[in-house]
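Re-run requested by the PI after the first attempt was lost when the workstation crashed. Everything re-entered from the original request form. Ligand of interest: flavin mononucleotide.
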Amino acid sequence: MPEEYTENSSYETETSGAAKLREPRGSLRGATHTVIERARYSEDGGKLALLHGSPRGATPTANERDQCSEDGGKLALWLAPLAGVTIPPVRLFFSRLGAEITHTEMVSASGLLYKNKKTKSMLEILPGESPVVLQLFAGDADSLVRAADFALAVSETNKLQNGAASFYALGINMACPMPKVQKRGAGAKLLEYPEIAFSMVKELKKIGLPVWVKVRKTPQKNCLTTYQFIEGLIEAGADNVCLHGRTPAQRYDGIADKEIVCGIARAFPGKISGSGDVYAHEDARVYLDAGCVGVMAARGALANPFIFRSDPSYPPAKEQLSLLAQFGRDVSELAGPRVAVIMVKRLLAGLLKGICGSGVFRREVARELNYERIAFLIEQGIAKNSVECGVQCH
Ligand SMILES: Cc1cc2nc3c(=O)[nH]c(=O)nc-3n(C[C@H](O)[C@H](O)[C@H](O)COP(=O)(O)O)c2cc1C
């Protein structure tokens, strides 16, 4: 289990995100516009408006996707929910790179109902983001629905403050294998309790937004097969079911079973999206060719953020560093420098691959605990148009 996959883990805002949006701080590196301003004037505002303005059906139509994606929407590649990672500025980063739909990290329904400040900060959406699916986890339908109602009210308030969209769909996590989630009857535990799972979908549907569910392949001993469980979810009203082809016991190990996902996609046309071992366009195509309406990139998005572009090859070092610098500024502005340090290091792991000197550069950044120092190193790399850091290339 990745240690980051913890409940409401690392979006460690120093104050509430909404407050920061009202009074954005000046950028450390002298940028003249705040994240919000940049997003408002970004070129893709019109394209996003098209998608946001679409009827809230199961998933965007192929036509809507074509209009939305920066490069023609050839692949319906979406950013998976990643606890401790898919905070708003990270989603904005991937939206700019072409992720058509993104997810929040899984958000605790009970955390929202207890008005936990950190949990509430996970509800923020930034202008310029691609449509966002809010993923909740709960052990019963009642707390799930109350939490969703609360989340939508908060999101409406945020919308008035920053002009961003509201959530595109409401997601339910029935996939998380973590003991601390399962022991509350949530996440993958729900695979063992189909009646509760189906009632959650049925009740959540009453809110009126599309309902998306993320599940895993069910274990052999489960009362229902994967097919039967998903059939029940769809009969209960689920608009999209994302199937991750690993059992809860497998966690993130071993090879994801793409065959089971493809078989289920053929059985339920228009309803299934796929997850598991998506590291390249070819991996996504396996799912899409079988009839999945979309594919979630998870660890593959961190391994190569350019996977969302029609050309997933790495751009020149300077472009990558500029994107990283912008990302660092956004995170620092919205979530504070401490989170920026963590997130910049996290994204850097997937950047500059194969570039001479990148290992040394990465180690230099890894040593730093201060965001301003890291920002300086990145700017230095941009100015030098390299990341050689004084080390000779052979
Ligand atoms: C660090 C991490 C955090 C994750 N957090 C979530 C989560 O909050 N909700 C969820 O449904 N899945 C979560 N997942 C599962 C991923 O969305 C995805 O289904 C899984 O990693 C399989 O895809 P991959 O093999 O392409 O990485 C997480 C996975 C990782 C590695």
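Saved to the shared folder this time. Residues 2, 4-5, 80-85, 105-106, 135, 173, 175-176, 214, 244, 252, 256, 275-278, 296, 298-300 surround flavin mononucleotide (CB under 6 Å).
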